Amino acid sequence: MASADTVTARTLPAVGGGRASAFLRRLAGKLGSLLLTLWLVTLLVFFSRFLVPGDPVRFLLRGRRPNPDAVAAVTAEYGLNLPPWQQYANWVVGMLHGDFGRSLQYRQPVATVIADRMPTTLMLVLISAVLIVVLGLAAGILAAVRRGKPADRITLIALTVLSAIPSFVGSIVLIAIFAVGLGWFPTFGSGQGLFDMAYHLTLPALALTIVFVVVVGKVTRSAMIEQYGREHVEVARSRGLSRGAVVRRHVFRNALRPIVTVGGPLIAGLLVATSIVESAFGISGIGNLLVQSVDRLDFPVVQAIVLLVVTAFLLVNAVIDILEPLIDPRSAAGASAR
Amino acid sequence: MIPTTALRVLRAPRIPRATATLWISVVVLLMFVIAAAGAPLLAPYSPDAVDFAAINAGPSPAHWLGTDNLGRDLLSRTMWGGRTALIGPLAVVIGSTVVGMLLGLAAGWRGGWVDSVLARLFDVLFAFPSLLIAIMAVALFGKGLVAPVIAMCIAYAPYVARLTRALVQAERTRPYVSAYRVQGFGGPWIALHRVMPNITPVVGAQSALNFGYVLAELAGLSFLGLGVQPPTPDWGAMINEAQAGIVSGAFLPAIVPAVAVVLAVVAVNIVGEEMSDRIGGEVPA
Predict the structure, then answer these.
(1) pTM of the model
(2) In this structure, what DSSP letter does residue B15 have?
(3) Which residue from A252, B202, B263, B268 has the highest number of Cβ atoms inside 10 Å of its Cβ?
(4) Domains and CATH numbers, chain A
C-alpha cells in the first residue's frame, strides 16, 4: 500500500506501450490456448475411430464389398498398417496441406466434396444469422424497455413457445403452410444463382432461426434489465437524457458484452442444425452431406465435417475473446464487467 | 447429519404459489407419461396394425387422430412413440448428472492440477455441440438410440460439472466442512457424504432443465433417420416417414408427432424452470 505512489509514477510514462504489450501478451495467450484446444480436438476426432472394436479396414469398408483390391486400396490410403501415432501425424500433415482424404461414396477428395457444398450452407447460415441478430435483439430490447408490461409478457411467452419448436418441427410446419398450403415458396432444393438461392433458402433459414432467436432474445432482455437496475442508468435518467439515448448509450451498450459472448458460440450449434434443416428441405449443403455420409458409412467425410464445425466454433470464440476489450473496455483491465 | 439438515431448513426458500400454467404443464406431462408407460394397455390399436380401408385418413371415431400412409393409427403410434421419446432424455439427464457431478466434485474439491486438466477437457468438450457428438457416435457405432444417448451423456456432463465445481468451491470453505475435518473425517468422505447431498438439489434441478433440449435433439436424430429406426414408432422417426406425404397434402401424420414433441418440450421446460426456481436461485455464474 505504501508503495502505491511509486508504482503509479513508474507505470505512468509507459501507459501506451504497456497497454499494447498487454494486448499482445493476451493475444499470444489466447492463440496458444486455441492451438492447444485444437490439437486436443484433432486427437479426439482422430482416435475416436479406435474406439470401434475390430479391424479398421472392415470399419472403413462397412456396407461395401471387401474385395482384396478395396482392402489394399484403403490400407494404403490410410496407412492402416502404420502405427497409430504415425497415421495421426500423416492425417494432420495432410490436412495442413488441404488434403482431408478421399470420400468413399463419391470417390473424390473430401475437400472437393465439402467445397462444392460450402456456398449453399454459408448462405443459409448467413441469412439465418442476420435474422437471429435482428429478430433476437428486437425482441429482447422490446421486452426490456417494456419490462413488466404486457408487451414484455407476450414476448416472453412467444419466446418460451418458440424455444420448444425444434428445427425439424419448424421445417415441416413452414413447408406445410408456406410451401404446400400457400405455395409462396419452393418445397425443395437450393436454386440457381444468388437471388434464386436466397429465395429457396428463406424458409430453411427461418426454420434454422427459431431456437437460436430465443437464446439471443432472452439474453438481450436479461442483460438489459440488469443494466436498468444500475446506478449509472438512474444518473443518466436524472440528467434528463431522452429515453432513446438512455437505452442506446447506457443500457444497450453495457448489455452488449453478455449478448456477444452468449450469441457468438451459437455458430457451432447453427452449423450442426443445418443438418436437420437441409435434410428437411432437400438442400445439398454441408449438413445434408454430414447426414448422408453417416448414413452411407463414409467416415472420412464425417471426420472432416466434425473437425470443420468444431474449428469454426473455436475460432469464433477466440475472435470474440480477443475483441472483447473493443466491445467493453472494462474487460481489458481484467476486471469483471460490474 | 444434523448440521446439514439444519442448514437446509434454514435456507429453505419461501415456496411461491403454483400458477395455472404450472398445473397445466404438470397435467400434460403426467398424461404423456401415463400414455407412454401404459401404451400396451391403453393404445386402441397395435402401433403396427395396418388398416387399408383408412389410409391417410382424417380424425374419425375409429381413429381419433387419423392414420398415416400405411393406415396405421396415429394416436396409438404417438403413444408408443412416447416411450423412446421420454426414456432417452431421462437416461441422458441421469447419466450426465452422475458423470458431471463426479467430475465437478473432483475439480472443485481437489483443485490444483486435477482442476486444470479437467477444465481443459471441458473446454474441448464444449466445442462439440451435443447433436454433433450424437451424430458422430452414430457414424462410429451404427444407428439406434444407445450410442447417441451415451454420447449425449458425455456432451452434457461438462455443463453439470462446471456448475458442480462452482458450488463445491463455495461449499468447501463453509464451517461444517472444517468441523468434519477437525473430527478426523477424510476429505473424499466429506465430499461424497456431506457436500454432495447439499449441492445435489441445485445441480439436479439445473440438469433436469436439459431434458427438453435432449428430447428435441434425440427426436431430431430419429428425424434424420440416424436414431430410432422405422417401423419402431418414435416421434422423430414418424415425422421422417411422413415427410414425403406433406407435399401431397397429408399433414396429419407429420403434425401429430410434431405437436407431441412441442407439447412435451414446453411442459417439461415450464415444470423444470419452476422446479429450479423453487429449489434455490443461488446458482453461481
Answers:
(1) 0.84
(2) P
(3) B268
(4) 110-337 (1.10.3720.10)
Rounded CA separation B103/B164 (Å): 8
SS3 B59: coil
Instruction: Provide the pLDDT for residue B88.
Output: 93
pLDDT at A12 over 60: no
Cell matching residue A93:
500433415
Chain B: residues touching A (Cβ < 8 Å): 120, 123-124, 127-129, 131-132, 135-136, 138-141, 212, 216-217, 219-220, 223-226, 236, 239, 243, 246-247, 249, 251, 254-255, 258, 261-262, 265-266, 269-270
Average pLDDT, rounded, for chain A? 81
Answer whether B161's CB lies under 8 Å from A75's CB.
Answer: no
Provide the ipTM.
Answer: 0.83
Chain A residues within 8 A of B255 when measuring between CB atoms: 172-173, 176
Tens of pLDDT, residues A179-216: 877 878 777 777 777 777 777 888 899 999 998 899 88
Residue B73: beta bridge partners? B67
Domains and CATH numbers, chain B: 32-39+65-280 (1.10.3720.10)
Instruction: Give whole-number Cα distances, A138 to A65, A135, A257, A310, A327, in Å.
Output: 55, 5, 17, 29, 19
